[in-house]
Amino acid sequence: MKSLRASLLRLTLAFGLSFALWAFVSFSQNPDENVTFPEMPLQVVGLDDDLVIVDTSGVPNQVFPTIDVTLRTDQRQLASLRRVDLRVVANLSGLGPGEHMVPINVEATRSNVAINVAPGGVAPAQVPVRLEQLSSAEVAISVEIQGNIPFSFERGEPRVSSGGQPIHMVRVYGPISRVMLVEEVRALVNVEQLRATYVAPLALTPLDGAGQPVEGVRVEPGTVTVQVPINPVVGLKLVPVEPQIIGLPAPGFEIRSVQVNPPLITLAGSSGPLDAVDLLTTTSLDLSGARQDLSASLALEFPDGTSPRAGEPDHVTVTVQIAPIERPFQIGLPTQVQLVGVAPGLIANFNPVVINLTVTGSSTALNELAENPISAVVDLSGLGPGFYSLTPEVELPAGIRLTTDLPSIDVTLRAPATATPQPVEEQPTVPPPPPDATPEPTLEPLPEPTPVAPSPEPEPEPVPEVTPTVVP
């Protein structure tokens, strides 16, 4: 019995000495160290679907502070430890609307990584979070029309549609405090000097009671089609041409742009048929399987009771640009040319009045072109009478760039015609007879007929050039 006890005692002592030796060797060969991972991104989890994180103004906020993390680990784990092995988390589970101080937790993304946060190793240790209830509301659409149309044209009431259906109300989504501020959504239309019906997709801007934009809300649908009828009072009407495109390009290809030349046609007819025409269509152009640009002369289809004005074509050239699908998006924009700096007393004629610009940019930047249309400006400052070929200046919004060279604009500057004075024939003067002389009868010669030049035929007044404005 004593021998057994002695054996157990010796075994326990040997085990203790072995463990002490192992601990001494381990800590001397693989000591613990502190390692800091600065500016770790913070991830938010556990947020309820009907809540949203907002800033102090109630605007949705997804920007969080970075976190500095200090871990205590041994050299063996430190050799393989990377930033991607850690995740800094703020758990919002169970939190309701209001302001909260949420603690920060550090988790491992790999099962073989042991997390031992050093004392004070998370800075900041907690972050303030403000939660607000999500809400929605229906608001009315208003259309603000700016600009004046030319004389002899009249403007009708604007019509708003989405997906081909009339629409008068939209729904606004966002934090409840921001949704309650929205009184209406507005589309801005500029019809300055337009001679054809305005049709364009426009973004809707949410406004408060003072007419100021409201941030932090989402409008569904965010874009609507606005049509403003513009019709001539007389029997002429300028309408845009809409080519009939059928079929789709080959897989992997897309339509970059569709250009129509000329883009506008003047129709003649009685007021009834003209009022019913908003655009002209063409015969069909089939793009099925196309892998490159297509160009074709298509016949115009004139509605009953209308015809092209004298001198207008009955065919248009339609050019469709086909290109491989890529991002960012690229579109073609017919852009009106404007002249500035014309010297007083000079008359300017220029051609073309509309140029086609090919621009590229993100879908968001291209959508903003509806509110900020591009214009091409030709500066004639300091130029006298003569013929000039000038390149216009185009100011592009941020995120938009040209992909083609700008065409030249032919400009003719001339002085207005002045009348030439005609010489007046002087009549001979007959001296009076002396007072005592007896007047003798004289025969006055009959006046010779004066040849009169035939009146010139009145020249037809030149028809002013129509500056086409193409609806984007």
TrEMBL record:
Ranges of biased composition (kind: Pro residues): 429-472
Gene3D superfamilies: 2.170.120.30, YbbR-like domain
Pfam families, sorted: YbbR
Coiled coil location: none
Region annotation Disordered: where it falls in the sequence: 418-472
Record PANTHER family: CDAA REGULATORY PROTEIN CDAR
Protein's name in the database: YbbR family protein
Organism: Candidatus Viridilinea mediisalina
Source lineage: Bacteria, Bacillati, Chloroflexota, Chloroflexia, Chloroflexales
